[in-house]
Amino acid sequence: xxxxxxxxxxxxxxxxxxxxxxxxxxxxxxxxxxxxxxxxxxxxxxxxxxxxxxxxxxxxxxxxxxxxxxxxxxxxxxxxxxxxxxxxxxxxxxxxxxxxxxxxxxxxxxxxxxxxxxxxxxxxxxxxxxxxxxxxxxxxxxxxxxxxxxxxxxxxxxxxxxxxxxxxxxxxxxxxxxxxxxxxxxxxxxxxxxxxxxxxxxxxxxxxxxxxxxxxxxxxxxxxxxxxxxxxxxxxxxxxxxxxxxxxxxxxxxxxxxxxxxxxxxxxxxxxxxxxxxxxxxxxxxxxxxxxxxxxxxxxxxxxxxxxxxxxxxxxxxxxxxxxxxxxxxxxxxxxxxxxxxxxxxxxxxxxxxxxxxxxxxxxxxxxxxxxxxxxxx
Length: 378
Description:
Radius of gyration: 20 Å
Strand content: 25-35%
Structural class: alpha+beta
CATH architecture of the largest domain: 2-Layer Sandwich
CATH topology of the largest domain: D-amino Acid Aminotransferase, Chain A, domain 1
Number of strands: 17
Number of domains: 3
Distance between the termini: 48 Å
Mean pLDDT: 94
Oligomer: single chain
């Protein structure tokens, strides 16, 4: 149960915006940081000591990274298991390859959740168009169909409104294993972040309230405006899940709050999460510092919300408009901050950064960040 003290070196598999922000927090705590990413211009490259440009499936590169580090973690769960195991032979890997093996496959993930007794909506795993058609009919005629592997920010999933659409959905998703989920009567979408250290210490952040557009997170509010009993139950589910998985690091549990008051688990992410970016301005300990503390087996930080906050994602669409974004307008707005990820290539739907805003109430924070997004023409 190795503890890595400030001055040590942390390796990050993945150099996207989450790796970048984790690296910046690690630097504040006095750590050295190395990263591995296939993109030679990945966001983390400009803030780490060493960045290896290699495919995530390159086991030799993963081992090389780990040999130079005291502990290895990740910012994206799509790292091949062979690379995770190669890294784990050289340094402690937190979270473990076993956690990732379950999370990476939606069918395995849901089967594990069901076996452990965590609440799920109706679902089925399917391996063919005919099976999918039968399942869609059995699940009520309208379903969300998702690839078991891959998919991110709305990719790798389609909405099927009738069994007759199953064949096309099967083709669109690559004719590989899928999970079909019944449509639910939602009140809201929440997420809960739990941090767990190798010695078993856990802390749980209040639930974030999330709003999606075209299946991509548009804005998030912390703390979410939910009844205290709902927040307590969500925290209990997330903590129990992290302990059952023996997670070392972070675990985000996406949940559905139904109109009848039930909480159901949607998906898991064993890494920092878009819906908790507000912790940078809302909480005593951001999710990125907490990730560093957890994987290094250091005491976990306070999750107290000092002031409510909200975030709005900035997508590449904004950069494609004439003249591009006019950030000076939002920087003049009280309580609003700009967070850019250092990405060089703006594309439609690509997350380029986010705005955050604080307020005396969650509602005020949300109103401020929405006003700032309107000022940018969103």
